[in-house]
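Blinded run. Sample ID left blank on purpose so nobody reads anything into the name before looking at the predicted structure. Input follows.
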Amino acid sequence: MDMWRLRQHLSRAGYECHIFKYQIWGKPPAKIADRLHHYVETLDAPVVNFVGHSFGGIVLLHMFDQFPFIRQGRIVLMGAPVNGSVVGKRMSRLAITRWTLGKATEQGILGDAPEWKGWQDIGIIAGTFPLGAGLVAGGPAAPHDGTVSVDETRLKGASDFITLPVSHMGMLISTPAATQVVTFLRSGKFGDVVGTPLLDTSVA
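Blinded prediction complete.
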């Protein structure tokens, strides 16, 4: 599922959106992060916010680990297994499913992603509607979004954290989830607070 619906919400909120596409089969997250950094460098904007879903959150951790001070802005991770994925670990142990993970296991979904150093405001959204492809592999511990458990998304040093009754993929088309993304990008926290954007903003 693409991020087109979330992109619509962000565009209506006044953000110029750019979608960075990648394949988990080609390169490990550290290499993808290097590509993302070079892509961000081409953007002509004083402020660049980042919204990463699932494995995209791990890619962002790698990018900020390699390039700490990229641009001013804020970050939102949605359903990102920053502490490793039980579902991913199960799949990696079986030859029949290991190939589907590609390079995502290299300092990625197995629990060895870089630690967050607190460079910028970062908010975490976790889903609690237990419906998703991860159930085929036994599912994570409850509460979870069908693929990633709430505990797997908790990031030490995060600015704020919120759970929503959405599934792993459903959070991408959820209006309440999109509203919380905009709220955090504007104010640095979730909830009912709606602040003003930081300067001229872009979302990668």
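Unblinding after everyone has recorded impressions. The longest helix spans residues 29-41.
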